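Incident review: delayed structure delivery

Summary: a single-chain prediction request sat in the queue longer than the usual turnaround. Root cause was a stuck worker, restarted by the on-call engineer. No data loss occurred. The affected request and its eventual output are reproduced below so the record is complete for anyone auditing the incident later.

Affected input:
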Amino acid sequence: KFILGIYMEFRNASNLLELKASYQILTKLEEAYPDFYDWYWNKVVPGILTKQDQLILAYIKNELVGISILKNNPNEKKLRALRITEKFQSKGYGLYLIDESLKRLETDKPLCSVSNKMIDDYSRIFINRYKFDLTYVYKNLYTKDSLEYEFNGQRELKNKTNY
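Output delivered after worker restart:
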């Protein structure tokens, strides 16, 4: 996909080095989600290996720009995580990664949630550009004195391992 005159390539993660590099991009999420390490290595990685989850890697000239983790099954279309590397943030590349994620999920309204620590990074894009619906705000879902904003939900999050 050509973006601003640059070819951006989307690949599915296929090896341990890519999974490790992806985790390193996601480490900031540990601030908002205390069990993030366990969730990634014990839920996401097995899901990727069994093809129940997808890890999309966005590259420009073999340099990793960002990642998206998707849950894509008939019962659940979910954008589980999305991060752009610091070098490429605020340059529009995240929009193309979201577009690719929505295309793969085959929906324009996936379930997703965002911590109050990151809501400023996502709310304008989710609401203004993608028309996501804010369906619920949870208090103390993952950490004490925090809020979790759910978009496009049809049910309340049942437990804190669903992020």
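Verification: Strands lie at 2-3, 6-12, 53-60, 63-73, 76-84, 112-115, 134-139, 147-151.
Action items: add queue-age alerting; document worker restart procedure.
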